[in-house]
Write a structure and sequence with these properties.
The complex is a heterodimer of chains A (about 350) and B (about 450). By secondary structure, chain A is of the alpha/beta class. Chain A has one domain (about 5-320): Rossmann fold (3-Layer(aba) Sandwich). Chain A has twelve helices and seven strands. Chain B has three domains: about 10-85, RNA polymerase II/Efflux pump adaptor protein, barrel-sandwich hybrid domain (OB fold (Dihydrolipoamide Acetyltransferase, E2P), Beta Barrel); about 120-305, Thiamin diphosphate (ThDP)-binding fold, Pyr/PP domains (Rossmann fold, 3-Layer(aba) Sandwich), CATH 3.40.50; about 315-440, 3-Layer(aba) Sandwich (Rossmann fold), CATH 3.40.50. In chain B, helix 9 (about 330-345) links the parallel strand 17 (about 325-330) and strand 18. Classes of the chains: A alpha/beta (about 350), B alpha/beta (about 450). The interface of A and B includes residues 106, 116, 131, 202 and 336 of A. The structure holds thiamine diphosphate and magnesium ion. Thiamine diphosphate (TPP) sits at the interface of chains A and B.
Chain lengths: ~350, ~450
């Protein structure tokens, strides 16, 4: 009874609903962020059940960053990031089933089970990985940008890294070359305020990370990384600028991770209140939900339908992964070198 | 003919820019010379008059140090030339004496630690390491600990638990994630006389800093002719943990053991972890101290003596046996002991040696054991190529050839980056059964 009444209500409402692109975008963002959130929650569960091993770094809380940035990308553009990479892969359009299977070390995973959570790639989606060494992906992303410039293909390299990684020397070696050669790269610093247990204030002499390129003349901007619309806007502007050949840019995303650094981190270095405050006041999915409902772009029922779809995708992914066998033992010695 | 490049042995006198009798000032270009790399101008070193050209333009293959002209200084006249001034060739390169390179010195025998029969207490490797650091920090204010998450977080693997509380922020220092930087900083502090303990969250991340470790820490004592020292310990977990994938699972033992100028220590038990770490902190050299995450939680009996120090460079026979020698280090010692138990059940008495220090290597203990057993199985977690097992095979060739009854067997990690999948990871790491099989193979038993 309750169900049918809500349906009628939403059907009545949807007549007044705004059609068109804006609505699609708002709802897509909502769905993409929700997919990441639910996927990560599932991964956390699977880890607890011993189905995922090793390190597993969840992206919960930071969803707006990748979803907003991805919105402006063309299919030529490339993405590279760190070990906290599940969200980036889903945003790139990689199949949740393949990602989950890799998390479990199964044959059906993106790296045939050989890479794991931190080391996944998709050449098809121009996703250059998951990298486990803090800072190391920054020169790599710069090199991918170099390849774009070299080929003149008009593509941009999105290079993500954290507030902890910004202090690695190779980041600045990269900045210099990127500025010197005007490489088409956007450095997206995901400032979630902590590098493992160390707050940014305890690790960085200057915590305005968007300014870190100033010695090289690289412009930077700080962005509310908890607001997908703000990220999308900043991302689109940055992409246009870089595509116009103006050289590298830095976007500092002010964001937050809700969970511990990895599954084994009790996160005692911050207060429960701090986390709670972020979750209740800044949650990117809740914000988006409110935006959609308040703007009358869709009704509760539409969002419920999205929730349902997302849940199904995630359940399927987990099912698929659990039924995917472990890699064939012969895979131990494959892929070490390209066979010639 | 001047030497104009490090590799030049002779040159062509391409062109004279001054003629005989012409006055030249210091810095004037007097000739052009073609070397193996380029055409170079040469300048007069003194002022005077170009008295005589000894090597005419166009002459090829003029050996380095051959006089090419005579410059007359003020007061000298051309008549002096005939009196053999030309023969006053500049002194040639120093005479190289025909001596052969000296033989590398044989390290003095290191006395083994006294057999300890006193009371012991049960400690985990984690606690033993912490105690070693705490004791040395109490003993010497120059000792300090730095690394990522070592202070407030108490260590990413909780090895530095309680140290911040006891020693304060001055001596227990959280660094930013900047391995190359803080390692260089630590090495610099050591050059200036401090005694840093530099913790790597894991040794995988020391690769960011390996230049400072090898090029700065290990070589500077030599390069400074013995003036500078680097009393630093580089420590942290090494090798595979559990399913953390290729970039986080690697054994660096043979990498560091390859390099002169450092010591490399690889403890297994908690007692050795403590005693060796104390020795490492006191050693005036850079010491690479390779721990193992999977051993941190394992407990062993540790002497309660006040100052439990285990000398670096001394292996330990953990189990005596006459049939086959098994050498191992770090976590593989446990597997070797398990294998020895199983082998005993089949009538093969294995002697198990914990190498403990890889550099300097206690060759005497290994060779003496093989003289008794005539067989050697070398176990390591790292890759086979140019590994510690390869070094064991070379040692046997050089020092125990006549005593061997079978080729040396190596049990190593698979020659692939570490896979993540559980089944593949198991296959990539040496298991007890692999050691048993190898020991049987060298004993010609199946
Ligand atoms: C070179 C290197 N040093 C240390 C580590 C261990 N480590 C993994 S993640 C991490 C914190 C990184 O923090 P940040 O860059 O802020 O990224 P976040 O985890 O917050 O996404 C550390 C120290 C590593 N993986 N690589
Ligand atoms: Mg961070």
């Amino acid at each position: 009874m309750a169900k049918s009444s809500s349906k009628t209500k939403s059907a009545a409402k949807s007549r007044s609903r705004k059609p068109g692109l804006e609505r699609d975008e708002l709802l897509n963002f909502y769905k993409d962020m929700l997919l990441i959130r639910r996927f990560e929650e599932k991964a956390g569960q699977m880890y607890g059940m011993g189905l995922i091993g090793g390190f597993c770094h969840l992206y919960i809380g930071q969803e707006a960053v990748v979803v907003g940035m991805q919105a402006g990308l063309s299919d030529k553009d490339t993405v590279i990031t760190t070990y906290r990479d599940h969200g980036h892969m889903l945003a790139c359009g990689m199949d949740p089933r393949g990602v989950m299977a890799e998390l479990m070390g199964r044959r059906g995973g993106y790296s045939k089970g050989k890479g794991g959570s931190m080391h996944m790639f998709s050449t098809e989606k121009n996703f250059f990985g998951g990298h486990g060494i803090v800072g190391a992906n920054v020169p790599l992303g710069t090199g991918i940008a170099f390849s774009h410039m070299y080929r003149g293909n008009g593509a941009v390299s999105l290079t993500y890294f954290g507030d902890g990684a910004v202090n690695q020397g190779q980041v600045y070696e990269s900045f210099n070359m990127a500025a010197l050669w005007r490489l088409p790269v956007i450095y997206v610093i995901e400032n979630n305020r902590y590098g493992m247990g160390t707050s940014i204030e305890r690790a960085s002499a200057n915590t305005d990370l968007y300014m870190r390129g100033s010695a090289y003349g690289i412009p930077g901007e700080t962005v509310d990384g908890m607001d997908v619309m703000a990220v999308r806007e900043a991302g689109a502007k940055a992409l246009a600028q870089v595509r116009a050949g103006k050289g590298p840019l830095i976007l500092e995303m002010q964001t937050y991770r809700y969970r511990g650094h990895s599954m084994s981190d009790p996160a005692k270095y911050r207060s429960k209140e701090e986390v709670l405050k972020m979750r209740t006041e800044k949650d990117p999915i809740e914000t988006q939900r409110k935006l959609i409902l308040d703007g009358d772009h869709a009704g509760e029922a539409d969002l419920k339908e999205i929730d349902r779809e997302v849940k199904l995708l995630v359940t399927e992914a987990a099912e698929y992964a659990q039924h995917s066998p472990e890699p064939d033992v012969a895979e131990l010695y494959t892929d070490v070198l390209v066979e010639v | 003919m001047p030497a104009l490049s490090p590799t030049m042995t002779d040159g062509t006198l391409a062109k004279w820019l001054k003629t005989e009798g012409e006055a030249v000032a210091a810095g004037d270009v007097i000739a052009e010379i073609e070397t193996d790399k380029a055409t170079m101008e040469i300048e007069a070193a003194d002022e005077g008059v170009l008295g005589k050209i000894l090597v005419p333009e166009g002459t090829e293959n003029v050996a380095v140090n051959t006089p090419i002209a005579v410059l007359l200084e003020e007061g000298e006249d051309a008549g002096a030339l005939s009196n053999g001034a030309a023969a006053a060739a500049p002194s040639a390169a120093p005479v190289v004496e025909a001596v052969s390179a000296p033989v590398a010195p044989v390290a003095a025998t290191i006395p083994a630690e006294a057999v300890y029969a006193g009371p012991t207490t049960r400690l985990s490797v984690r606690e033993a390491l912490r105690d070693a650091m705490a004791e040395e920090m109490r003993r010497d204010d120059d000792v300090f600990l730095m690394g990522e998450e070592v202070a407030q977080y108490q260590g990413a693997y909780k090895v530095s638990q309680g140290l911040l509380e006891e020693f304060g922020e001055r001596r227990v220092i959280d660094t930013p994630i900047t391995e190359h930087g803080f390692t260089g900083l630590g090495v610099g502090a050591a050059f200036a006389g401090l005694k840093p303990i530099i913790e790597f969250m894991t040794f995988n991340f020391a690769m960011q800093a390996i230049d400072q470790i090898i090029n700065s820490a290990a070589k500077t004592h030599y390069m400074s002719g013995g003036q500078l020292t680097c009393q630093a310990v580089f420590r942290g977990p090494n090798g595979a943990a559990s399913r953390v994938g290729a970039q986080h699972s690697q054994c660096y033992a043979s990498w560091y053991a390859h390099c002169p100028g450092m010591k490399v220590v690889t403890p297994y038990s908690a007692a050795d972890a403590k005693g060796l770490l104390k020795a490492a902190i006191r050693d005036p050299n850079p010491v690479i101290f390779l721990e193992n995450e999977l051993l941190y939680g394992q407990s062993f009996d540790v002497p309660t003596e006040e100052d439990h120090v285990v000398p670096l460079g001394k292996a330990k026979i953990l189990r005596e046996g006459g049939d086959v020698t098994i050498v191992a280090f770090s976590i593989m010692v446990g597997r070797a002991l398990e294998a020895a138990d199983a082998l005993a059940g089949e009538g093969i008495n294995a002697e198990v040696i914990d190498l403990r220090t890889l550099r300097p290597l206690d060759t005497e203990t290994i060779v003496n054991s093989v003289k008794k057993t005539n067989r050697l199985v070398a176990v390591e977690e790292g890759w086979p190529f140019a590994g510690i097992g390869s070094e064991m095979a070379a040692l046997m060739m050089e020092q125990a050839f006549d005593w061997l009854d079978a080729p040396v067997a190596r049990v190593t990690g698979a020659d692939v980056p570490m896979p993540y999948a559980a089944n593949l990871e198991r296959l990539a790491l040496p298991q007890t059964q692999n050691i048993i099989d190898a020991a049987k193979a060298v004993s010609y038993r199946s």
